[in-house]
Amino acid sequence: MTTTIAKKGMNLTVKNIQAFYGESKAVKGVSIDFPANKITALIGPSGCGKSTLVRCLNRMHEEGSSASVRGKVLLNEENIYGADVDPVSVRRTIGMVFQKPNPFPTMSILDNVLAGPRLSGDRAHATRKHAEQALRDVGLWAEVKHKLNRPAADLSGGQQQRLCIARAIALEPEVLLMDEPCSALDPISTQRIEELVLRLKKRFTIVMVTHNLQQAQRVADRTAFMLDGELIEVAATSNLFNKPKDSRTKKYVTGQFG
Amino acid sequence: MSVFIATSRRRLVTNVLIKSLLLAGVIAALLPLVLVIGYVFAKGLPAFSADFFLTDPTGAFFGDQGGIRSAIIGTFAIVGLASLIAIPTGIALAVYLNEIGKKSKLASGIRYGVDILTGVPSIVFGLFIYSVLVIGDFMTGFAAWKGSLALALLMLPVVIRAGEVSLAMVPTTLREAALALGAPRWRVILFVVLPSAVSGLVTGSLLAIARTAGETAPLLFTVLGAQALTMSFVEPMNSLPLQIFNDIRQPNPDLVTRAWGAALTLILLILVTTLIARFAARRNRI
What we know:
By secondary structure, chain A is an alpha/beta fold. Helix content of chain A is 33%, strand content 25%. Chain A has 10 helices and 10 strands. Chain B folds into 2 domains: 31 residues; 224 residues, Orthogonal Bundle (MetI-like fold), CATH 1.10.3720.
């Protein structure tokens, strides 16, 4: 059974975000909307700032040494960079999946799924039943139900990444950020993740960085093209790929550079 | 004609030469080790008996001289208390250096201090405790806990350095994963970083224990030594290095043999500790 309960998500609005590494500016004032229950893909050549932008959306960017952020990110009208907002609570509400599957190697499969609720002190969600639901949601339950106490490292790369997604959604966030979630995976695993992401958008607002233009076309409702730290164009995916307004977007999506 | 060019004679000669130099180096390094351990075994093994391990030294010069029970238990007690002081403190400092302070002025100050502490001879720690706590203005008298304190000072830099290295080996991606789940920093450290570094932390701690277990100088001025078994940390206590130090100087071959027996016991204890450290390092590596 895969009962992905539909749920009205929250809009994420980015207003003139600038991200710095020391003095150098990686994101140069980007404003963009990520509508609820839609998948927005971020594309662009390496080093264009798309990963940095995503890391600004759950206040992870500022964790790096000498990294800083300016601008606003509104989740349902509330600025996550507000003076009285705790970054820790932002990250509970805006989940993240990383490029390389990164399950905790010292924990079992079950403990990995429950790591979010446990690490954030949310006892109510740290139950086995809750973990089972999260694992069912990512379609991993049948594969792991007989070995929940095995180390997470026993799983294949694709399974590990689905485990990481289960770990992120076990916290029941509003937004799911995915930083090239398939770039370390084989095509079959990639396909499974894509199907999963399409199911998950019924519940979450999804932002997905990808290097794979076909992937953006397969899953994204909207696609944003970034270049040199700037947002060049954002549009419905088919429009961006078929009728790009900007010549640089056109060059990129037709494979003339990048 | 072969497609392969024949290796020149000069190269062959150089090869043999370098190989024998390396072999000579290996022998030069291993020989003293084998000789020392072999000698201690030869001298100490005759002392071993059930009584040797199960009775306390009597202090008698003639007749029943007793074994080394109080020395073995004293070593465990003194080194144990030293570990209880140094290991948590050292790991806490390592966590500060690697996870919290990182590039702060305080952190580099601590690193500098740790480097200096590493170079301080062990007898200086003994003298320090002696002048402050044994003949000090506020406190006088020999006591086991003062020896533990001296040993703890000796262990501290080893634990901190080893701890910092093993924490640095924990991949940043794991910290990020935990932070992204809304974990406060202290929970990230306690439940993700430390468990991932545990094998390195255990190894570092056990090596520090092994290094200090044989120290004599810091104990001479602080613990003094004793004959009878005591579990009181506020009194002088016996320990293996002190037993060896006292026995080996006696003009009685039986007591000298007991010193060798105690030395062999100490070597075996340290060997076991080191082996455990190795084993811990091999298991659950990231």
